Amino acid sequence: MRIDHDALVIGAGGAGLWAALELARAGVSTGVLTKLYPTRSHTGAAQGGVCAALGNQEEDHWEWHMFDTVKGGDYLVDQDAAEVLAHEAIETVIELEHMGLPFNRTPDGKIDQRRFGGHTRNFGEGPIKRACFAADRTGHMILQTLYQSCIKAGVQFYDEYHVVDLLFEGGEGGDGGRAAGVVAYRIADGELHTFGAKAVLLATGGNGRMFSITSNAHSLTGDGMSLVYRHGIPLEDMEFYQFHPTGIYGIGILLSEAARGEGGTLLNADGERFMSRYAPKAMELAPRDMVSRAIYLEIRDGRGAGPKKDYVYLDVRHLGRAVIEEKLPDITEFARVYLGVEPLTEPVPIQPTAHYAMGGIPTDLRTRVVRDEANTVVEGLFAAGEAACVSVHGANRLGTNSLVDLLVFGRRAGREMAAYCRAAEAPSIAADVEEPVRSELEALRTRPEGESPSALKAELATLMMDNVGVFRTAKMMATAVAGVAAIKDRYTRVRVRDTGRIFNTDLLEARELGYLIDGAEAMASSAIARTESRGAHSRDDYPERDDVNFLAHTLAYRGEAGPSLRYKPVTITRFEPKPRTY
Amino acid sequence: MQVDLRILRFDPERDAAPHWESYRVEAEPMDRVLNLLTTVKAEQDGTLTFRRSCAHGICGSDAMLINGRNRLACKIRVDQLGKKITVAPLTGLPVVKDLVVDMDTFFSKYRSVMPFLIADSPAPERERRQSQADRARYDDTTKCILCAACTTACPSFWAQPSYVGPAAIVNAHRFIFDSRDDAGDERLEILADKDGVWRCRTIFNCVDACPRGINITRAILEVSRAVVERSV
Fold first, then answer.
1. For position B231, what pLDDT does the model report?
2. What is the mean pLDDT of residues A514-520?
3. Chain B closest-CA separation from residue A218 CA (Å)
4. A340 touching chain B per CB within 8 A
5. Which of A110, A217, A503 has its CB closest to that of B96?
6. What percentage of chain B has pLDDT greater than the value 90?
7. Are B162 and B71 part of one and the same domain?
8. How far, in Å, CA of A460 to CA of A479, rounded?
9. Residues 31 to 90 of B: which have CB under 8 A from any A CB?
10. Residue B52's CATH number
């Protein structure tokens, strides 16, 4: 079946929904495709807050937010992008409030703000209250509010349509072609649909499911990243993957940084606030990469708690019942439900959990996808949110900046696409574009023999967790590169068990495993080639940052014998790279 | 421990009617039902079909009927259920396959109550002010994740499928009692309809079913009271 719109938005999390809203307001014919229902998107799991220099609690300036973002990202951040992020954060948060977002309030009725890791006053002097929040369900309220606004604006949704290919006109995406639409698999009945459009936005989120301990939803399999990679467009900075310090032990469900923002502490087995050894000034509110490394070192040096000495504690007992129940109700419940631990009276066992891809689909400030070190634009193709790399997070993202990113650049994407659609002609699409993906899906379904994709997925997740995690060595990364290649080969022979047409999740999970493998391949290869330590990429053989050779973004291009790597310079405007201490 | 898991299965491409299948699964007391379903799908029967995404009670994908009560599969633990566990799809919505139900009518009921802020005054340059007390007035109903557990646990909905249902009323409540909103009367008009709030018989199944702990019956009563006050 063939459906045409002027614009397509792939993914209905915060970035996709805001883009769709802008497109609807501009009167552009738009379809939003999501493999879930929009309100299931993982933006809804974000807890602690969204930073904007509103200054409601104390003096603040967007330039301070910009500086914190650049320093937090270990100077790999493109500073023109960080400027856009910090500056436009203010108006996007205000606009969200106007849309109805129920922020917590100060006594005089303004949006309430609290502390978060790495956010400081006056270029690093001390912590600042910058995170605007709605209890500890800020992401939930952002997702609901944007979905509500989309309903109000009459946005057309295609719920449970799984995008399985991108279409280009006049050549491959990586070779001068222009975006022309997508092929999508309707989950309800297994039918393929061709969607034609002038402009396509990839707002498909991250790929944390390539790790065994993760805060990410099952749906986060890096679909958009993989699809561009398969069409010759590179992935940027994939080696920079954030491990959030406070995942629930053994499961990885997130306990928000808001717990530390409100005054929660981290303790080792001896009951010691070990952060004093690693970040004496910022303590528990140091950036996430530093806190995760500190936890890793405490455990490695035998100061972990529990029978296997493999976790540490998050302690909120001293905050008192009122703060915990009013400002941290959800994460308190997570500890009760998933660990059987009562945070009012007991410290909570935690470990770092795979959380966020700083890297992704390279874009310019206008959210247009770019395909090389000269920032050559792929016409008609856009990306925003976690799927994209603009790059505002550099080597390590600050807490709350994921929400800021998807709001600011989701909004920009919608406006940019609306302008593009007014000027562009509708592309032409060949008749047989569904054929390649139809054959791939048929092969998965009908191969007579083959191993189970779910077992292979578990193997991939363990391989990546063990070897491309918080601390890396050349040997570990080499193991990952070889292991991913072997898994990629075995993947060509997997077979699904469900051969039906209707709601075949077995088939789609197998397809998603292919996307995860692509992401893991780009990540492991980009990581081993970066012979320095920067932000979340930390290796024992190269413990120092190397600005002479690696103040540069990695671009990983897909190749038959593994990815080929190129590098592009970092944009530096206001802040020269300095040593990073907290 | 060993768990006896019974699942109501239905594949429209193979089965004339739903039927029970039994599985024996090795489980830990702290495992959730979603872990058991995932294990069955990975190790015993890849055709078992259910929705899931976040796996920690936030996205609302995996509401189902577990040991006779609507629960999120990712939030209810084996130690809360015992060694015999039965799982069936939500009641009152068409079954697509196994534990997957068609959510379209549920979401159209949600859309029917105008679940979005309507403010008549032009937006100020900064935020609209709201007191902490006014913000607290509708806090409970902002927690809804649209999982459908409440509506599909409601006997009034089973008896009268045109009833708008508790989830839609909860989402109307969230705006009716928001001091920034100006369209409360229009929503109350919609809910004063024969398929609106009056179908609620205060059976409290919705309160038991809600995975977010929302006091749904109280929210419905507050809306009912507002409907009455409006018509006097």
1. 67
2. 98
3. 5
4. yes
5. A503
6. 98
7. no
8. 12
9. 41-42, 45-47, 49-61, 75, 77
10. 3.10.20.30
Both tokens assigned to A152:
């109000």
Same domain, B199 and B125: yes
**Parent domain of B196:** 104-231
Cα(A130)–Cα(A80) distance, rounded to whole angstroms?
21
What's the mean pLDDT when you consider all of chain A? Answer: 96
Interface TM-score (ipTM) > 0.85: yes
Q: Which pLDDT belongs to residue A216?
A: 98
What is the C-alpha to C-alpha distance for residues A393 and A73, in angstroms, rounded to an integer?
A: 5
Range list of β-strands (E), A78-205: 113-121, 126-132, 156-159, 161-169, 178-186, 191-196, 199-202
Looking at B85, B101, B117, which one is the last position of a domain?
B101
User: Which position among A121, A130, A288, A445 bears the catalytic label?
Assistant: A288
pLDDT value of residue B230? 82
User: Is the domain of B21 the same as that of B135?
Assistant: no
Interface test with chain B among A505, A506, A507, A509, by most B beta carbons within 10 Å: A505
CB A161 within 8 A of CB A191: no
B40 and B87 part of one domain = yes
User: A504 CB near a chain B CB, below 8 Å?
Assistant: yes
A548: how many CB neighbours lie within 10 A of its CB? 7
Residue A447 bears catalytic tag: no
Quote the percentage of chain B above a pLDDT of 70: 99
Interface test with B, best of A35, A47, A90, A97 (most B CBs within 10 A): A97
Q: Final residue of a domain: which of B53, B68, B101?
A: B101
A215's tokens: 């805060």
Asked if A334 has any chain B CB less than 8 Å from its own CB, the reply is: yes
pLDDT score, position A448: 84
Mutation to test the B interface, candidates A43, A223, A503, most B Cβ within 10 Å: A503
The residues, ordered by sequence, that sit 6+ positions from A110 with a Cβ below 8 Å of its Cβ are: A54, A56, B126, B127, B129
Q: Are B92 and B150 in contact (CB under 8 A)?
A: no
Nearest CB to B146 within list A39, A455, A505: A39
Q: Is the pLDDT of residue B232 over 60?
A: no
Answer yes or no: do B143 and B93 share one domain. no
Strand order in the sheet with B2-9: B19-26, B2-9, B84-88, B63-66, B69-72
- Residue A325, pLDDT score: 86
CB atoms B117 and A148 under 8 Å: yes
Q: Which residues of A touch B30 (CB under 8 A)?
A: 338-340
Determine contact: B128 vs chain A, CB below 8 A: yes
d(CA B97, CA B110): 23
What is the rounded (10 degree) CA torsion for A533, A538, A539, A540? Answer: 90
Q: What is the pLDDT of residue A174?
A: 94
Residues B174 and B69 in one domain: no
Digit-coded pLDDT (tens) for B70-129: 999 999 999 999 999 999 999 999 999 999 999 999 999 999 999 999 999 999 999 999
In terms of residues, how long is chain A?
582
Q: What is the pLDDT of residue A326?
A: 83
B89 and B115: one domain?
no
Total structural domains within chain B: 2
Q: B114 and B13 share a domain?
A: no
Residue A392, pLDDT above cutoff 80: yes
